[in-house]
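Support request from a user on the community tier.

User writes: "When I paste my C-alpha cells into the form, the page sometimes reloads and wipes my input. The last time it worked, I copied everything first. Here is what I submitted, just in case something in the input itself triggers the reload:"
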C-alpha cells in the first residue's frame, strides 16, 4: 500500500531516516529508535490503520530485541535493507515492494536469530 499511496515528501522523510540511521550504526539505542521510526513511517505511508496500530504496539518490544540481539553488522545490514526497500517502494510496484519487504523481514529474522 505504501508503494501506491506515498507522496514525494514522505519518500524524502523516509530517506532521511535511513541516512540518519547510517550515521549512528555504532550507537544501538539511537540506531534502534531510527529503525523503528522507519518501519512506523512506512506503516503511516500505507494509510493502513491496522498496520500502524500493530507497529505502534510492537515498537518497545522491537527496540529491546534489536538492542539485545543487534550489532553494528546487523545495523549495517538493516540500513542496506531499508535502502533497498525504499528504492523498490519508490518505484510504485506494489508486488515488488511486498516481495522486497518480505526479503527484508526474513533477513532481519535470520540476522537477529528470531524464531
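"...and here is what came back when it finally went through:"
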Amino acid at each position: 500500500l505504501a508503494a501506491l499511496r506515498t507522496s514525494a515528501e514522505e519518500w524524502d522523510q523516509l530517506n532521511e531516516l535511513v541516512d540518519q540511521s547510517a550515521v549512528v550504526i555504532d550507537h544501538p539505542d539511537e540506531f534502534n529508535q531510527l529503525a523503528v521510526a522507519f518501519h512506523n513511517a512506512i506503516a503511516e505511508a500505507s494509510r493502513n490503520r491496522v498496520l500502524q496500530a500493530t507497529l505502534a504496539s510492537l515498537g518497545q518490544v522491537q527496540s529491546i530485541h534489536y538492542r539485545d540481539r543487534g550489532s553494528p553488522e546487523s545495523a549495517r545490514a538493516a540500513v542496506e535493507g531499508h535502502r533497498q526497500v525504499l528504492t523498490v517502494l519508490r518505484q510504485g510496484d506494489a508486488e515488488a515492494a511486498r516481495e522486497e519487504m518480505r526479503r527484508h523481514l526474513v533477513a532481519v529474522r535470520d540476522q537477529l536469530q528470531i524464531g
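Agent notes: The reload is a front-end session timeout and is unrelated to the input. The helical segments are 2-5, 8-23, 28-46, 49-69, 72-90, 94-112. The radius of gyration is 13 Å. Escalated to web team.
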